[in-house]
Amino acid sequence: MSGNVADSAISPTSPAQTIPADLSGQMLELDEDDDLEVFSKDTTITDGGSFNASLQTSPGSMMNQYKFDEEDEEEEPGVKDIFITVDNPESHVTTIETFITYRVLTKTTRSEFDSSEYEVRRRYQDFLWLKGRLEEANPTLIVHPLPEKFVMKGMVERFNDDFIETRRRALHRFLNRIAEHPILSCNEDFKVFLSAQAWELTSHKKQGPGFLSRMGETVRAVAASVRGIKNRPEEFNSMQEYVEAFSQKMTSLDRITQRIVKEEREYLEELKEYAPAYTLWSGSEEELVEPLKGVASCVDRCFQETEEQVRHLSDTLAPALHEYVLCGETLKAVLRRRDNIQAELEAKNEALAAKRADRDADPRERGVVWQSLMGKNPEEARQLKQQRLAGEIHELKEEIDKLEDRVEWANNALKGDWSRWQRSMRSDLKEAFLSTAQKNVDHYEKCLAVWESFLLSMRAEVGDISQPSGDS
Question: DSSP letters of 65-101?
Answer without folding.
Answer: H----HHHHPPPSS---EEEEEEEEEEEE-SS-EEEE
